[in-house]
């Protein structure tokens, strides 16, 4: 039987990567195409067509497609996502103040309903009056709903009833908290559910775009998506639980780094257009964050690699602080559309505006910056305020200079809100542009990059002097800043893993060590393992970053497509937790993975819980496409001795099923 090739696709903020992979020969072909946010299938199609052409193979050679993405991560880091309505059952307004829920909610609507359950699954009466009153109007103001009920992980009945009512009236996507986590902690589970609801339309668009292209090309094979812990899930599962794809791209890059380098112990840093993701490989496995992934400042209940994500990348905003005697440069956390990329797509509009700005005698407040629509469908712009709608209508598919768009500070704040909704890109100077000026990158329009750097170099510091004498000088300053900021974020991640409370950005000792400055006391630092640099731009940045950190630099040949490689070499892994609690002496209640069951014998309850967890985990793995999954069960029994008698508080049975995905055969 002929070996089938595996197609790995990674959709990032700037590029979509594709690889054709053979389990015997490794990477057969690789290619990149720009991520096309207005229609993701265009970028996916461009990358896939390129690898097929390069490998000279027919589509019938493909037996599996696996997708990883940083779109969900980027959206949370940049504060983007659709508007979601939160319905919480059995909680009060004071609960919004816990676990960052109020901050995450922002201006999105929330409805409080009486109801919920207790720790043993017993119910408090559910009253949906407030929901019924709000639903007709609310359905036109949000793009999805999130539901979180009190102790819903022990009994999801109220969440399910509310979900059915919302679907009946609104026909919008609905996420229930019990579908995402079996951990206790209502407000954080509500936060996770809210973020999931915001991501539904984005991940649905991505999967639909990929499936649409594959169908059009006659590629009818199983399709997987990388989860945040590096495991694979089916595309259908990812649609329901898009929150599980946060850190999908970074997790795939870790799996890819391990495969490409063969290193068991390493610090892995993946630089993309929007973010830098840092994690540690220990004994061949990525460390997992037992508390839940932190993305965009919010700690979720999503089990994911212990990855720290920073708003720092090749397309980061260049921020110039000109208030001191000597100007300073900082990068990020916002992503800009690089001037060189904007001009590659719309050369006349961008270059003519930059040239006009350079001819003026004085530096303009908005020089070198443009706004352009991201190309999202119109229905995702629902719920805009009148001033937001008015400004949005003035922005089109061709970049418009901010000097011609904004007349007041209030309008700038309005524009920022449109950017946060993912509806508009700001175009401006980025490290990618600096690399074009210096001749170290050349895929886009170097003329626009140079004009943008020349404009920015005219900015005067507190002493009245231009911050740089030439575009090249400014570009070197930007690259130096990216090197230093990258070293700081990698170092802060490693120090956090070591439980060391040192902030590299403000520590004088760290500053002297990174600069190699001599003193009466000499400070030095080094990593105890190689630094693996990933990302298309890793070869131009990471040798200097590794040198600054006193580490061996390892940049694999396939560094630019490590995410796509990781997408096809991972395993399917599903876990199910079933609980046994004791509401009263001699009564044992089994909850989780099905309806509540009541027993009067502890061993029978335990046996039933084990069997239910194992069956549910196996079924879930098989539903996700695992071939011959293997199940491992872990038992945690909390039964202390009180006055000489054993007292069962709770028992939990965790079944984990894993296996390689099923590959289509002739």
Folded structure, characterized:
By secondary structure, the chain is α/β, with parallel strands linked by helices. Helix 11 (386-394) packs across helix 13 (409-420). It is globular and about 85 Å long. The termini are close together.
Highlighted features:
single chain; about 675 residues; alpha/beta; six-stranded mixed sheet; globular
Question: Helices, strands, pairings?
Answer:
Layout lengths: L4 E7 L3 E8 L3 E9 L5 H16 L6 E8 L1 H7 L6 E6 L11 H5 L4 E4 L15 H10 L5 E6 L7 H14 L3 E3 L9 H31 L6 E4 L5 E3 H6 L7 H14 L4 E6 L4 E7 L2 E2 L1 E2 L4 E2 L2 E2 L4 E2 L2 E3 L5 E6 L6 E8 L1 E2 H7 L1 H13 L10 E4 L12 H9 L5 E2 H4 L3 H12 L3 E5 L2 H7 L8 H12 L13 H27 L10 H8 L15 E4 L3 H11 L4 E2 L7 H8 L2 E13 L2 E5 L5 E3 L2 H22 L6 E9 L2 E2 L2 E2 L3 E10 L7
Parallel strand pairs: 1-4, 4-9, 5-6, 5-7, 7-8, 11-25, 21-24, 25-26
Antiparallel strand pairs: 1-2, 2-3, 9-10, 11-12, 12-13, 12-18, 14-17, 15-16, 19-20, 22-23, 22-24, 27-28, 27-33, 28-29, 30-33, 31-32
| Strand line-up across the major sheet | 3-2-1-4-9-10
Average pLDDT rating: 89
Cα radius of gyration in angstroms = 26 Å
Unreliable residue stretches: none
Tally the helices. Answer: 20
* Biggest sheet features: 6 strands, mixed
The general outline is globular
The residue fraction in helices comes out at 25-40%
Beta-strand content: 15-25%
How many strand elements?
33
Distance between the termini: 8 Å
Alpha-beta classification: alpha/beta
